Every structure is written in C-alpha cells, then in structure tokens.
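note to self: dont lose this again. the chain is below, predicted strucutre after it. 144 aa total, dont forget to put it in the shared folder this time
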Amino acid sequence: MGDGDEQEERGPRAEGMRRHAAGLVGHVTARNRLPLDYSVASLRVVDFVIDGLRSGGKARAEVGGTLFGLGAYVGEVLVRRAGAVWVDFDADQRAYFGQPVGVRMPDGRVWNPLGKVVNRFEVGKEESLQTFYLTLPGRIRRAA
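---
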C-alpha cells in the first residue's frame, strides 16, 4: 500500500471538506429549500434538522452520512465566518476527537465540528450548534 492508501484509510481529508459541505447544501436545499447559506443564523437550521433526525427514531448509523455532511457544513461556517481553516488531525487528535478532520481557529485552537453534530444528535438541545459558534473562543468576527 502506498501513502495515498494509508491516508484514505484514515477517512476524509481536510482538503475535501468544503466539497462535502457544498454537496450537503445542494442536496438539502434542492429538496427542502432550507436556508443553508453558511451564515451563523443557519446553524439554527442545522440544529432543527438534527432534531428532526432524532425525532425520527433512527439510529446514528442510519443517519451517519447526513450527520457527516452537517458536520462539514458547520465546519465550513467556522471557516467562512470565524477565520478557521480545515486541518487533518494527527493520530493523537483523531484518537481524542474520534474524527479524522477538524478546524483550527486563528488563535491556534482546534475544534471538532463533526463531533459537535454527533453530540447534538445523541444528547439533544443542550448541544446547540448555534450556541457553540456564538460562544466559541478564538474566532474572528466577519460580516455575514
């Protein structure tokens, strides 16, 4: 196996996350006309979408692809609105966060938007993604 095979085994890569977010937006907005415009306010819509998945009674494994896409979207909001950049987690970070990628904020802190979405699905309303963004340290403020 070459290096590329090893990287593929670790899961999604940082350079593909924008594409994953765009794919989710295209799919969801075409079917439901949800206002996913990468704004901070749109994170409330993500909260509602996840709540709908929860109320449908499906197991996490059944909605894993959707949760991944929503996590990519949340991360892309951080990139576009808070000055974050997508990063591939190193082995220790992957073990800690349980995800292969995340975002690095302008102050150097790393965050796990994919895991935050899973938390919203598993825990519920206490894990608001909009509140996560609004209370996130290390972000820069950009105009919507």
